[in-house]
Amino acid sequence: MNANWPLEPLVKHLTTAGGAMLYNAALARNCQPQWFDPQFWAAQDRLLGTARGRGTAHFVQAGERELVLRHYRRGGLAARVYGDRYRWHGEPRTRPFAEWLLTHRLHRAGLPVPTPIAARYVRDGSAYRGDIITERLHGTVSLTQALREAALPLLTWISIGRCIRRFHDLGVCHADLNAHNVLLGSAAVYLVDFDRCRLRPDGLWRDGNLVRLRRSLEKVTFGLPAERFTEADWHALLDGYQSEPQPGQAP
Ligand SMILES: Nc1ncnc2c1ncn2[C@@H]1O[C@H](COP(=O)(O)OP(=O)(O)O)[C@@H](O)[C@H]1O
Ligand SMILES: [Mg+2]
Fold first, then answer.
1. Is 81 or 220 the better-scoring residue by pLDDT?
2. What is the 3 CA–ligand 2 centroid distance (Å)?
């Protein structure tokens, strides 16, 4: 175990064939490398469905819990050249471990993120492949899916702005803040997908995140009725973002 990685006792680090995995033993005591393989769940008829991101997220039933399995894939041109392989720069810099540990930290800080369960990498020469498992956020739909169905109340836009602000106040720069990575529940707004996200001192990156989300909203509502995303909606989001955070404020 790398000395730079002080882990809590419940976060287990396990060396596996060709790689390693991290998991939260309080939530998944019997976690094994097969868990990262959708076929393992399909063979037991415990595959519940999928969602699309850059790759495919698989929803599975693991006892009482529903989990989300995600294999790391590159986007765009790099996908054709490298597929799902990433250059090895040491364990702490693997996508799955970095995302898992950041998500774990945010979860412990009380931010609305999925509970991280496990992460692993498997080395392949000077490259590696990786996966992450989180707990499924029940009863949520992505902002993209919600807008395909109907316009949202202004209060929801305000809640989205407040939610983003909470992350920004902790210095979380989201590398891909788009409408697919904002999940809406009946009582809360969540952010997912902390791949390549970093904690940063205050700066213009905050506006960069918001601009990226605005572009995404324009893109996903293109061709839908105009009332699905209006200037009033965006201003409500910004109002929520700019409102004074309340101590212990719900997301
Ligand atoms: N914990 C979760 N609970 C419910 N849905 C999730 C969860 N994690 C991911 N998803 C769904 O899967 C999609 C893809 O996952 P994401 O983490 O964004 O990976 P990608 O890097 O492929 O975009 C998300 O847009 C979201 O709809
Ligand atoms: Mg995503």
1. 220
2. 31
